[in-house]
Write a structure and sequence with these properties.
Its cofactor is Fe(2+). The protein has 10 helices and 13 strands. By secondary structure, the chain is an alpha+beta fold. Bound molecules: 2-oxoglutaric acid (AKG).
Length: about 290
């Protein structure tokens, strides 16, 4: 039987049941209510002003970042920059997650980015991808994300899927491999540009044995930035909210502000919309939406 650290190294992810207590969940629920309402208001105001999101974020570089669903410019798909915006998240939640990650890795980690996927009914399918593709413009080459579920995540409402053991499935694949603190990790070929930017190529995804990772409210799933993952649409009539806090090793430096400075200034850069069901790049033209 593998211990948590061994299992995390082997699979690239681990589910920690009820790793957060009811106070933590209340903090996140309050932040979620406030930030979601603010996100909706931002989309409304930007639309009323006839501005593009790119124009808006160029001028408002400390604002919460909100990204609409691919098929509805008024519907919030995700919002980002949670710790930049919410003191409660920054002071109460981040230190707890840092402890969980340190217990697993014996190393100190600092926050790199944070977001909440609203996953409203009918929305939010994320194609198979590796997060590393979205982060490689910054120095850290290894990250650990804590996914926290504010609603139970089920197969019906679009839980995450991870591989049973992708290192084994893809052991013969001829691809770039990166040495990380969890060992060698493959970088998988993915689509470049357009609406499928960052999606793992179908032929590779087909070789992976995927497994659903359902979760209860308060569970935390830790996964590294090479672990392939995806999720289906939310086919229920309730939200499936999840917050994702991504960390990098402290020894690599602190990039949180630099990451969000770039994201505010380059809102439409496909790098920031890897395998997401969000309105961006060529989709804007196809749907007649403004970016
Ligand atoms: O929220 C989900 O269902 C998937 C999230 C994800 O894979 C991502 O944001 O990179």
């Amino acid at each position: 039987m593998l211990n948590d650290a061994q299992s995390f190294t082997q699979k690239g992810y681990i589910a920690l049941q009820q790793a957060l207590n009811s106070d933590d969940i209340e903090t996140l629920e309050n932040a979620s209510d406030e930030l979601y309402a603010h996100s909706e208001q931002l989309l409304k105001t930007i639309a009323e002003n006839g501005e593009t999101l790119t124009e808006f974020y160029n001028k408002n570089i400390h604002e919460l970042i909100v990204v609409p669903e691919i098929d509805n410019a008024n519907k919030v798909c995700r919002y980002e920059y949670l710790s930049g915006y919410s003191e409660a998240v920054r002071t109460k939640i981040i230190p707890k997650l840092q402890i969980l990650i340190e217990q697993l890795t014996q190393q100190k980690f600092v926050l790199f980015k944070d977001k909440c996927n609203a996953k409203n009914p009918g929305g939010g399918a994320f194609a198979p991808h590796q997060d590393i593709i979205a982060y490689d413009q910054f120095k850290p080459a290894y990250h650990i994300t804590a996914a926290i579920f504010l609603d139970d995540a089920t197969i019906e409402n679009g839980c995450l899927f991870f591989p049973e053991n992708y290192l084994e499935d893809l052991k013969d694949l001829n691809t770039k491999r990166v040495s990380t603190l969890s060992g060698n990790r493959p970088v998988l070929d993915s689509d470049e540009g357009g609406r499928t930017h960052g999606n793992i190529c179908q032929a590779i995804s087909d070789q992976i044995r995927w497994t659903p990772v359902t979760a209860k409210k308060g569970d935390v799933v830790l996964f590294d930035s090479y672990a392939p993952h995806h999720s289906e649409k939310n086919n229920s009539n309730m939200t499936r909210r999840a917050m994702f806090f991504t960390f990098n090793a402290e020894s690599d430096g602190d990039f949180y502000q630099a990451y969000y400075d770039m994201k505010h200034r380059e809102f439409d850069n496909p790098k920031f919309h890897i395998a997401t069901p969000t309105a961006h790049s060529d989709v804007f033209q196809e749907n007649g939406l403004k970016s």
